[in-house]
């Protein structure tokens, strides 16, 4: 709860900074503020408390995931320093929106009431719509914002409809009450329908097949930093929320629902990977790779009671490598009008450090050992085989092999092609973010227990 | 003192080499390579005195994974092969100039680190991690410092990477499956598992895919010749000298003892595959016009025979296979080095453009001839002992296997000597062939020395590996 209040306070502070014309200080102060909030969240780690008639429930689950979100936001805010260089007059708006987005994210993992959940998702989504369209002179950014808004609000509508049906069935918005009632023998048919509708809405947010059509266009059109935010923070927030939603409302989801999860998971991996193979735009490629990672993360829904730790681990591994990859993309594609793979040619020669970082990030996403991505997949496979879905794991393994194909396309471009032009300047902050993110990723890979045991 | 020391030396060496800068990199790398060789000899002494040099500590609690390095005779032999070849390989590259050499040499040491780890690891996941880790450096070595057209090279290397990764991922699934049965991936815990025949078959096949691609066995060999040709010679040496031994070692250490029922049931098929590789590799080698490709196919033939030896599941077969692994490791490094020496002078690998070197450099010719003869298993060379033991074990199973496998010696002699004739003999070449330099001479003499020494006195290695092979055999022959 304190986390949420502090974050919102920080967001308001960001807006005030503009009034007092302190735009230069905004990034460092926000980072310091977020570090403080991170400390606050960690200090509350072991407490389980509920506030305002169960509106907000702070638990281990919520505080670990909130910490992850805060870390990601710190990275994203830091990257903003360079990215918004040419938009100094609006920087406080952009940063403040990101902080509010974080507030929405934290609300989404610590809700105790479906109303709070919906509030959280709306705060998050609306901030994202704005950020997607934030490059307002750019036609593509406008298109992305509009597309995302139309599709997103439609999904919100479906979620809301689902919540209404659940309320109609149970007479309450409170998740603990719903969970208790759902144990009874006779459930009205619209309770499962409501659950399915809410799930569909969330699947849209995490861009799982067949609700992924918005992702490539929106990722491509949005400003690169927003894409980074959508593919890392927003995706893991939505995934964590879906997980929490299903696990608090009815711990044992029915067999037929599991089959649907298996099918969607397989479809997301396969479609995402196969489409990614054909992309030449790096942002689109990562969008499709994100679709396939969503498929992997959906596997956690098959063993709801035990897989919180592995979801946290997968989400951290994926989003940290995503941050590292996107900071390199931000550097390479600065002042370019597209993010085609051509821009990456010869990066291994012109900038070996960033090329190595991008390589490491992609290897982590592909699941090569010693990077956290490998353990994430390993733990996930272990859990899924334990739950009895060997076929799904085999599909996942085959998909891991396919994914190597397109990750390596980028690596090859960096190391085998000749550089087309020199890039000037060494933006220290981008370097710092990329290095820290990839080091964190490797540390997670060397000491997986550290995160895995948090939610054991 | 325990075996983790070697890994630490190699890893620290990799970083130190990178930090040393382009000028010093090769020397720093050689220093650390020699240091690891020295310490593995010291460790071997400790091991022979009966001290415990294994290392184990809990790494991940959930899932239960240990950082377990176990050194028995077999592992020590393979470790020594790695640490002995690494400095030789590094030293052999002294005549070449590489761009960005600090990364190049750092990657070589890193690769030795990963390969040494593979030979030592006795926890399934740790083993898998080292196994995969060794893939990354060789990928970059072949990709960045390789030769030939960049597009072709890219295709060959990516194919190699995806092939090997695909194979090993199924091995990972097998490990995950066994983990759920045993609750741990320590080798001794896995040995205790009582798996049904069907389970063993699937596990055997999952392992087989990984190893057959790495070794490579027919029909999973299609990546090999192209990558050997395109990689820089150092990379080819690492691949053929050490890395493919990882696959053969793993068959003995992991595949056979973990799925003995399947191994016994389908023994003939796998021996047959190995021998098919012998014949196929020899015949294809006959027709090669590129020196490196010829050596690649001859390597395919030799490892086919080694694999056939391991799948006989007899002590002789395993022992011969291990001896031949070590012998082949040295001789193949020597042969690729010879190809490199010629390339340094003639800038070509096409056999047709060579010839007439003998009169210009008799020293080089005799050293090359010795290597060629060693490779075709002439008595008194190390290869003879290995190949003979394997053929003997094959004849115990079925005399026809030995006869067919024996064609490796006949065909091998034919294509190797024909190659030697075309490359070295004939009228004096119009292009000048400078005599071997001191560095080149030292490297070749070292390799030849090893081959002759163990060819005449293989006892130290046989004594070292036999107890652990017997242990593995009891595991294979256990009744379940």
From TrEMBL, chain A:
The keyword Chloroplast does not apply. It is a multi-pass membrane protein. InterPro entries: NADH-Q_OxRdtase_suN/2, ND/Mrp_TM. The chain crosses the membrane at residues 26-45, 57-79, 99-132, 148-169, 189-213, 225-245, 257-277, 311-332, 353-380, 386-408, 428-451. Keywords: Cell membrane, Membrane, NAD, Quinone, Translocase, Transmembrane, Transmembrane helix, Transport. It comes from the Bacteria. It is found in: Cell membrane; Endomembrane system; Membrane. Residues 113-403 form the NADH:quinone oxidoreductase/Mrp antiporter transmembrane domain. Belongs to the complex I subunit 2 family. This is NADH-quinone oxidoreductase subunit N. The lineage of its organism: Bacteria, Pseudomonadati, Bacteroidota, Flavobacteriia, Flavobacteriales. The gene is nuoN.
From TrEMBL, chain B:
GO terms for cellular component: endomembrane system; membrane. GO terms for molecular function: NADH dehydrogenase (ubiquinone) activity; NADH dehydrogenase activity; ubiquinone binding. The keyword Transmembrane helix applies. The chain crosses the membrane at residues 6-21, 28-47, 67-91, 103-122, 128-148, 160-180, 200-220, 232-254, 266-287, 294-313, 325-343, 364-385, 397-417, 438-457. Its main location: membrane. It is found in: Endomembrane system; Membrane. The keyword Membrane applies. Keywords: Membrane, Transmembrane, Transmembrane helix. It is a multi-pass membrane protein. It comes from the Bacteria. GO terms for biological process: ATP synthesis coupled electron transport; electron transport coupled proton transport. InterPro entries: NADH_Q_OxRdtase_chainM/4, NADH_UbQ_OxRdtase, ND/Mrp_TM. Residues 122-407 form the NADH:quinone oxidoreductase/Mrp antiporter transmembrane domain. Belongs to the complex I subunit 4 family. This is NADH-quinone oxidoreductase subunit M. It comes from Flavobacterium rhamnosiphilum. The lineage of its organism: Bacteria, Pseudomonadati, Bacteroidota, Flavobacteriia, Flavobacteriales.
């Amino acid at each position: 709860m304190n986390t949420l209040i502090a974050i919102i306070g920080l967001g308001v502070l960001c807006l005030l900074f503009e009034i007092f014309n302190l735009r230069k200080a905004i990034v460092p102060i926000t980072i310091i503020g977020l570090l403080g909030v991170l400390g606050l969240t960690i200090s509350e780690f072991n407490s389980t408390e509920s506030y305002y008639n169960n509106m907000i429930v702070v638990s281990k689950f919520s505080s670990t995931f909130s910490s992850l979100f805060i870390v990601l936001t710190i990275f994203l805010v830091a990257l903003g320093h360079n990215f918004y260089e040419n938009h100094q007059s609006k920087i406080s708006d952009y940063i403040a929106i990101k902080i509010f987005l974080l507030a929405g994210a934290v609300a989404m993992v610590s809700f105790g009431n479906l109303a709070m959940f919906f509030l959280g998702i709306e705060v998050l989504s609306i901030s994202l719509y704005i950020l997607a369209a934030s490059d307002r002179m750019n036609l593509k950014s406008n298109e992305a914002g509009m597309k995302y808004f139309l599709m997103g609000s439609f999904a919100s509508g479906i979620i809301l409809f689902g919540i209404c049906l659940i309320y109609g069935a149970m007479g309450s918005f409170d998740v603990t009450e719903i969970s208790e009632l759902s144990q009874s023998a006779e459930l009205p048919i619209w309770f499962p329908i409501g659950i399915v509708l809410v799930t569909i809405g969330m699947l849209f947010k995490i861009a799982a097949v067949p609700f992924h059509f918005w992702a490539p266009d929106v990722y491509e059109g949005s400003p690169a930093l927003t894409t980074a935010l959508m593919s890392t923070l927003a995706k893991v927030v939505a995934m964590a929320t879906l997980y929490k939603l299903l696990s608090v409302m009815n711990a044992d989801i029915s067999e037929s629902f599991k089959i649907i999860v298996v099918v969607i998971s397989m479809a997301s991996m396969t479609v995402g990977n196969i489409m990614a193979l054909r992309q030449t735009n790096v942002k689109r490629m990562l969008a499709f790779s994100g679709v396939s990672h969503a498929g992997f993360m959906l596997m956690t829904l098959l063993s709801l009671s035990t897989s919180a730790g592995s979801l946290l681990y997968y989400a951290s591994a994926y989003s940290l490598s995503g941050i590292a990859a996107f900071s390199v993309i931000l550097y390479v594609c600065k002042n370019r009008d597209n993010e085609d793979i051509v821009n990456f040619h010869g990066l291994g020669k012109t900038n070996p450090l960033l090329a190595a970082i991008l390589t490491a990030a992609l290897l982590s996403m592909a699941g090569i050992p010693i990077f956290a991505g490998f353990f994430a997949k390993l733990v996930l496979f272990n859990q899924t085989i334990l739950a009895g879905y060997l076929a799904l794991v085999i599909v996942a393994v085959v998909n891991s092999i396919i994914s190597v194909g397109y990750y390596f396309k980028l690596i090859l471009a960096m190391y085998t092609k000749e550089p087309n032009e020199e890039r000037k300047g060494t933006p220290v902050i981008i370097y710092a973010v990329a290095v820290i993110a990839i080091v964190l990723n490797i540390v997670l890979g060397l000491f997986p227990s550290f995160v895995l045991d948090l939610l054991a | 003192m325990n075996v983790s020391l070697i890994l630490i030396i190699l890893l620290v060496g990799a970083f130190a080499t990178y930090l040393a800068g382009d000028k010093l990199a090769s020397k720093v790398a050689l220093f650390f390579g020699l240091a690891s060789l020295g310490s593995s000899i010291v460790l071997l002494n400790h091991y022979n005195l009966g001290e415990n040099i294994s290392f184990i500590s809990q790494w991940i609690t959930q899932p239960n994974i240990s950082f377990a390095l176990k050194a028995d005779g077999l592992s020590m032999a393979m470790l020594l092969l790695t640490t002995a070849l690494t400095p030789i390989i590094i030293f052999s590259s002294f005549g070449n100039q590489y761009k960005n050499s600090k990364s190049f040499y750092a990657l070589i040491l890193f690769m030795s680190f990963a390969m040494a780890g593979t030979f030592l690891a006795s926890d399934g996941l740790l083993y898998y991690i080292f196994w995969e880790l060794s893939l990354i450096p060789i990928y970059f070595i072949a990709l960045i410092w390789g030769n030939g057209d960049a597009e072709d090279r890219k295709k060959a290397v990516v194919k190699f990477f995806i092939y090997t990764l695909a194979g090993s991922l199924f091995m990972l699934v097998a490990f995950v499956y066994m983990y759920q049965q045993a609750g741990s991936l320590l080798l001794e815990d896995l040995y205790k598992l009582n798996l049904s025949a069907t389970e063993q078959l699937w596990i055997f096949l999952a392992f087989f895919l990984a190893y057959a691609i790495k070794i490579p066995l027919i029909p999973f060999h299609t990546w090999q010749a192209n990558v050997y040709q395109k990689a820089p010679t150092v990379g080819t040496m690492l691949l053929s000298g050490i890395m493919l031994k990882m696959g053969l070692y793993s068959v003995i250490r992991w595949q056979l003892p973990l799925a003995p029922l399947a191994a016994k049931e389908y023994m003939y098929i796998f021996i047959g595959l190995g021998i098919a590789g012998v014949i196929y590799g020899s015949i294809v080698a006959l027709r090669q016009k590129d020196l490196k490709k010829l050596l690649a196919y001859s390597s395919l033939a030799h490892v086919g025979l080694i694999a056939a030896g391991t799948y006989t599941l007899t002590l002789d077969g395993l022992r011969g296979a291990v001896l031949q692994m070590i012998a082949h490791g040295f001789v193949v490094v020597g042969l690729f080095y010879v190809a490199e020496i010629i390339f340094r002078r003639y800038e070509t690998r096409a056999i047709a453009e060579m010839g007439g070197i003998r009169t210009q450099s008799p020293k080089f010719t005799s050293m090359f001839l010795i290597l060629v003869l060693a490779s075709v298993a002439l008595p008194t060379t190390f290869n003879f002992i290995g190949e003979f033991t394997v053929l003997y074990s094959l004849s115990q199973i079925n005399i026809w296997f030995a006869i067919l496998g024996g064609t490796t010696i006949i065909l091998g002699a034919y294509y190797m000597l024909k190659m030697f004739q075309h490359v070295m003999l004939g009228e004096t070449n119009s292009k000048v062939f400078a005599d071997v330099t001191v560095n080149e001479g030292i490297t070749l003499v070292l390799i030849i020395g090893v081959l002759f020494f163990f060819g005449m006195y293989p006892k130290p290695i046989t004594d070292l590996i036999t107890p652990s092979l017997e242990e593995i055999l009891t595991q294979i022959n256990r009744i379940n």
